[in-house]
Every structure is written in structure tokens, then in C-alpha cells.
């Protein structure tokens, strides 16, 4: 049976506060950071994940790598469950992460050589000479001169540090990489270089990517499929052509309208502007969580949660407009 590379089933992550100012009324309060998320990622696929700050994108990525334990739900990798304690040492090297800030994700007292040697020693059965060759090969692959291997993170530029982070992720030959806004902390002049490097490496080594980003144009450029997330839930999912050419959910439409348009034929009056602020994750609204900001809100949206249903060609949406 041909399994999906990664399957997420009804995943939830609640952060509880049992004491202090956040719990004055007695019962434990919880931030529902991820609340019933389900999707899958194929082999050799780049899947984009878009949403406002605080919607749970980074938390979801960390749960997938067992950096957070889920409150509920199941994660399947190659058809085998890896949820929580079932995440094995062997599976660790097959799933890697590129963090948002390349400086804070590198140990400041370790040289580039040492940073890359650690995963090779832990996960790969290389001799000392093989490690040396592999280390230099990794640096060359990501565009770093191997003669820089004895430098510390502060001696590199932001773009060079992110290249080292990418090299570290590639060192254990992963099958999937969670890229958490990997270019957002970089200068604009460097962002395209890192993005093109990541795309070239993905084509060469054929690993899957969950690409988390605020930048809609970048996600459209790099991804095969796109996931739209709002307040801990997925509201729309589909192939990028379907989703960008025919956005269904009012939240998706508002996000796409927020992107500057070069086409002069698009009038300001046609834009669906996203107003207001997301409600608190301590006490999310009943029904559809977007109804407090939705111009097309109906009475049913205030009381009943919409089902996540198929629309066409695996294009799925959670909205009562299509019920």
C-alpha cells in the first residue's frame, strides 16, 4: 500500500494556565493554538502554510517534529504512528526543521564545522574522514566556502547563517523539512537567493517541504498545494492554481486581496479588505471562528461550526456558503 509520507489527523494543542492572573475564575484556561487540524503531505511535495501571526502555524510545525506533544490527534509517518512518545530516534533524522531566526537556532560557541559534525556523529555512521568529506560537501552545496568552517555564527552574515542551518538539516538526509518562515529574518536582497537555493536542493534531493510563511507570493511561487489557517483551524486547502485562481473562503479572499496588485484593472472597490483583529484563542467564537470579521456572515455562522468539505479536485473549504 502506498502511504502518504505524512498524515495529520485531528491534531490539537492546548496550552493550559492553571494558576495566576489568567485563571482568576477558577477553572484552567487554555490557549487553543491548534484545534482539530487534518491534512497530509505527499512525497516530493512542497506544501505551503499561510495565516496571520498567532494562528498556530509554528506550533503545528513543532508538534509534527515532536518539539511539542499534542493534546489530541494522530501523526502518521509512512503509515506508522509517530505521535508523542512513539516518535523514534530513527524517525528524527528523517524529519528536520529550518527555523525562522538563523542566529538563535545556531549555537554561538560552536564553529560551523562543529555544528555540522554533531548530527553526522549522532545519526550517520561515518568515519572521521568520511565526516570531513561530507562536511565540506554540505558547505559547498549551500554555497559556503569550506575554508570558513572554523568560523563562529557571529562571523557570518544572516544569509550565510541560514545556509548553515539548511546544511545542518540536509546532513542527515531527511525526507521532509519543516521550513518555518526561513527567509523572513533576512535582508530582502538575500531572500531570493535563499529561496532559490531551497528550491534547487528540493529538486535535487527530492525531499518534501512544509513551507510556513506570511508571504503569499512566495508560497505561490514555491508550493504545489496551499493550506490556509485561521485561529488554530484549517479553513481552506487545495492545489495552488485552484486556491489562488478561485479562493473560496472569505478569509482566503481577504488575504489575497491584501497582496499589492500590479494589474491596473483591479479596482480598490473589488478588494475584500480584512478588518478588525482575530478574537482571543482563550475564548474563540462559537460557530465559524471567522464570523466576527466576515462581511458575508450568516446566522448559522454564529452558532454552527462549518464542516471541512470537498469542493472540486481536492479543493476543500470550511464555510457555510458552500454547505
Descriptive notes:
The protein has nine helices and twelve strands. By secondary structure, the protein is α/β, with parallel strands linked by helices. It is globular, with a radius of gyration of 21 Å. The strands form two sheets. An eight-stranded mixed sheet has the order 6-7-8-3-9-10-12-11, with helices on both faces. The relative contact order is 0.14. The protein is 28% helix and 23% strand. The model is unreliable at 262-269 (pLDDT under 50). The protein has a domain at 6-94 and 172-231: P-loop containing nucleotide triphosphate hydrolases (Rossmann fold), CATH 3.40.50. A hairpin with a 2-residue loop joins strand 9 (225-230) and strand 10 (233-239). It has helices at 57-64, 89-92, 112-123, 128-141, 158-170, 188-205, 216-222, 240-245, 250-257, and strands spanning 6-17, 29-41, 46-50, 72-77, 80-81, 95-98, 176-180, 208-213, 225-230, 233-239, 308-312, 315-318.
How do the helices and strands line up, and which of them pair or pack?
Elements: E1 6-17, E2 29-41, E3 46-50, H1 57-64, E4 72-77, E5 80-81, H2 89-92, E6 95-98, H3 112-123, H4 128-141, H5 158-170, E7 176-180, H6 188-205, E8 208-213, H7 216-222, E9 225-230, E10 233-239, H8 240-245, H9 250-257, E11 308-312, E12 315-318
Parallel strand pairs: 3-8, 3-9, 6-7, 7-8
Antiparallel strand pairs: 1-2, 1-4, 4-5, 9-10, 10-12, 11-12
Helix pairs in contact: 5-6
CATH homologous superfamily annotation of the domain at 6-94 and 172-231: P-loop containing nucleotide triphosphate hydrolases
- Helix-strand pattern: EEEHEEHEHHHEHEHEEHHEE
CATH class category of the domain at 6-94 and 172-231: Alpha Beta
Radius of gyration: 21 Å
**Widest sheet, order of strands:** 6-7-8-3-9-10-12-11
The overall pLDDT average reads 89
Amino acid at each position: 500500500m502506498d502511504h502518504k509520507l505524512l498524515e495529520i489527523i485531528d491534531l490539537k494543542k492546548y496550552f493550559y494556565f492553571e494558576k495566576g492572573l489568567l485563571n482568576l475564575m477558577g477553572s484552567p484556561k487554555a490557549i487553543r493554538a491548534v484545534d482539530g487540524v487534518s491534512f497530509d503531505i505527499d512525497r516530493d511535495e512542497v506544501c505551503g502554510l499561510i495565516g496571520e501571526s498567532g494562528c498556530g502555524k509554528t506550533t503545528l510545525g513543532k508538534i509534527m517534529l515532536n518539539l511539542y506533544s499534542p493534546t489530541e490527534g494522530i501523526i502518521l509517518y509512512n503509515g506508522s504512528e509517530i505521535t508523542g512518545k512513539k516518535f523514534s530516534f530513527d524517525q528524527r533524522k528523517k524529519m528536520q526543521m529550518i527555523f525562522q531566526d538563523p542566529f538563535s537556532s545556531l549555537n554561538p560557541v560552536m564553529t560551523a564545522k562543529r555544528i555540522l559534525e554533531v548530527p553526522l556523529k549522532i545519526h550517520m555512521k561515518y568515519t572521521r574522514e568520511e565526516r570531513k568529506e561530507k562536511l565540506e560537501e554540505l558547505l559547498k552545496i549551500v554555497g559556503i566556502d569550506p575554508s570558513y568552517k572554523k568560523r563562529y555564527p557571529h562571523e557570518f552574515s544572516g544569509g550565510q547563517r541560514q545556509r548553515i542551518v539548511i546544511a545542518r538539516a540536509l546532513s542527515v538526509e531527511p525526507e521532509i523539512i519543516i521550513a518555518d518562515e526561513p527567509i523572513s529574518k533576512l535582508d530582502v536582497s538575500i531572500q531570493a537567493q535563499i529561496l532559490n537555493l531551497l528550491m534547487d536542493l528540493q529538486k535535487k534531493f527530492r525531499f518534501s517541504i512544509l513551507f510556513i510563511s506570511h508571504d503569499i507570493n512566495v508560497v505561490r511561487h514555491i508550493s504545489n498545494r496551499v493550506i490556509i489557517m485561521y485561529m488554530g483551524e484549517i479553513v481552506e486547502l487545495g492545489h495552488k492554481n485552484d486556491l489562488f485562481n478561485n479562493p473560496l473562503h472569505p478569509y482566503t479572499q481577504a488575504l489575497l486581496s491584501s497582496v499589492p496588485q500590479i494589474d491596473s484593472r483591479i479596482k480598490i472597490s473589488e478588494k475584500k479588505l480584512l478588518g478588525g483583529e482575530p478574537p482571543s484563542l482563550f475564548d474563540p467564537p462559537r460557530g465559524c471562528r471567522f464570523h466576527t470579521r466576515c462581511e458575508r456572515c450568516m446566522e448559522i455562522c454564529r452558532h454552527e461550526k462549518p464542516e471541512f468539505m470537498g469542493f472540486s479536485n481536492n479543493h476543500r473549504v470550511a464555510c457555510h456558503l458552500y454547505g
